[in-house]
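protein under study:
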Amino acid sequence: MMIQNDVILLAGGSGSRMGSEQAKQFIRVAGKPVLVHSFQALRLHLPEAYIVVVAPVEALEHVRELIGHDPMAQVVPGGSSRQASTLQGLKALAERRPTNVIIHDAARPFISGQIIHEVVDALVKSEAVDVAIPTTDTIIVERDGHIQTIPPRLHIMRGQTPQAFRYVSLMRSYVEIGEAQLDKYTDDCGIYLACHPFGQVRIVKGHEENIKITTPVDLVLADELFRLRRPDSENENQGIAVRDKKALIFGGSAGIGKALAQLLEDAGAQVCVRSRASGCDITKERDVRQAIDEALTLMGRIDYIINSAGVLDTGLITEQSGLDMAHQIGVNLTGAAYIAKWGYAPLATSKGMLLQFSSSSYTRGRANSVIYAATKAAIVNMTQGLSEEWSSESIRVNCIVPGRTDTEMRRVNFRNESQASLSNPFEIALKAAKVLSSNSSGQIIRA
């Protein structure tokens, strides 16, 4: 008998605890609404599943647009509570009558393939499955503003989602409880156990990263997680598909930019390179504008604008001149802003991509490279902001974060470093070419 695992994705919340006019599931993080991150993760790891998205009644069409009118998905209006919304999802699956139903909260965008697969595996032998992690906090039971008891922490866990069940069993539980009593329960496992007092719910180990975005602080954490994690990413197994594309590379006369120019040309793209060596100083707005105009004249359109230009001047900030600091900021940040400003129009026409390069230094400022690290952190923020600002024009904006790479700039600043410990520029260029071939936007990709 074929086992069918279908999904209910709960996206009907109002986000009142977020303190925002926009519901949390529609807030953009790393270039996409939280709901889209969650939906895509489920689709990636459950490609055969039918996904019912339960959404606010006033946002049904918006949600349909967000998920791309997936033929194996349906959007239905939610209820007055989480449990009522789950019931709406269960009713939507009534005709399909799947073997199992997996219920996930759209506000948990970091659901991993490992958790999903372990939940599916657990359903082979178990009728109900929950995802949980041990609590690291002491749990207290309060009554009238005082501690009533402090339960031992050994067996206390924090529940996450997804939760998963035999479809028929959970549907019967909901019918038995009755719609009028649903608000007495906080989750589906509670409803299942209320109707199955001798039933067992198998626990699958969750992960600390599988956070639920509920408050403004969670948004900050989510943003950092998206920056730091390597995405489940379509880019990892993405091929290179750039034939007949038109690319303009700033800073393509050396290092990673030069390697990327060669790789793109070998893959069938037409490439135009502009750098200081060819008379283009990106700290000068007129040079950037002229370079983009010349590339349009030469190639007819621009599908990719790639900014690999950058400078690093190491040394204590107290020993750097104002001109030295201004030069680093000008090349690494101001120049990037000029490229984005004048690159917008041609990329809007081609529905193309702006690809930027940051550095592993962006996550933490380091002594002797304070200005450099600060500008590279700014590039990451610029990438995420532009991906949101330009999403309505279907312009994709991404950022590659190379590790230590064997470039002339690095050799000048770190003369005693072993080259054997460094990445080859062509390794980074290959990952960049895969990103250019993808539909990703707002991604910070470590390479």
Observations:
- The chain has two domains: 5-228, 246-446.
- The CA atoms of residues 90 and 171 lie 7 Å apart.
